[in-house]
Amino acid sequence: MSSHSFLQIRELSKRYGGAPKPVFEGINVDIERGEFVCIIGHSGCGKTTILNILSGLDSASGGNVVMDGREVSGPSLDRGVVFQGHALMPWLTVAANIAFAVKSRWPDWSRERIQQHGQKYIDLVRLTGNESKKPSELSGGMKQRVGIARAFAIQPKMLLLDEPFGALDALTRGTIQDELLSICSQTQQTVFMITHDVDEAILLADKIMLMSSNTSTGPAARIAEVVVNTLPKTRTRADIHHHPQFYKIRNHLVDFLVNRSSAPTVMNSIGGIGYPPEIFPGLTSEEDSSDKSQKPSLKKIK
Predict the structure, then answer these.
(1) In CATH, 32-59+162-302 is 1.25.40
(2) Whole-prediction pTM value?
(3) Residue range(s) occupied by CATH 3.40.50 in the chain
(4) Which residue of 74, 83, 138, 164 has the fewest C-beta atoms within 10 A of its own C-beta?
(5) Mind listing the pLDDT tens digit for each residue in 200-227?
(6) Helix (H/G/I), strand (E/B), else coil: 62
(7) Which residues, 6 or more positions from 93, have their beta carbon under 8 angstroms from its beta carbon?
């Protein structure tokens, strides 16, 4: 693990009140600038709490988070958040919702510059022509697009997504996934996203973090594995299922969630800190030895 990683999470833990066990503990992971990371785990393991700590909306019981050399200690416009609910201001139009965020980020900008900047992101999420509509006039998918446009418009160093597509129908969800991939490709945005959808994680993420869940003795969850997505970066919803690595990765994720999430976690100790192992389930032994582009910080495990 590098001391120069964009985001460093060290020994993070969260305990509520007099609970005998923490919700999670010993969270040690690094995220590089421009990486898209998804986190998957059973309900109650603390995924949203981790995201809230990263956003500064909640505080940890132990450990710390450092982003771009500065410790996260509260909310900041350096981190954009998109929740499952769109969280738009219902009395404002699409353009005004986005302009409000832009003005908060750059209070000295003129009205014209704010409008032009916001329009760029309205166009990016394919909402051109809907600028004057209020949230009550939009479909669920369109509302989520406004939320995504608003988050991108403040040009955050990191984007935090809490199951933003969970309430959408499959067709709308797929369309917005494609748009998110396109925007992230253009902006090289760093993203931390919660999802329960294995296929969505494989489509979007560079790395997939798997959280343990020991329901028999209490939460005390950890990040048990970091699965590296070795599918081509140019993957699309239309062709991803045809790639020979797809089902190797998918089966590994499903097997963890169904059979291994409550098993004891085995950490790799580096400098006295326990890190989850990086797993490369998509690669065969031959591919593994010949792929020089993958340079994991930890031992590869099949």
Answers:
(1) no
(2) 0.88
(3) 32-59+162-302
(4) 74
(5) 999 999 999 999 986 555 567 899 999 9
(6) strand
(7) 131, 132, 133, 134
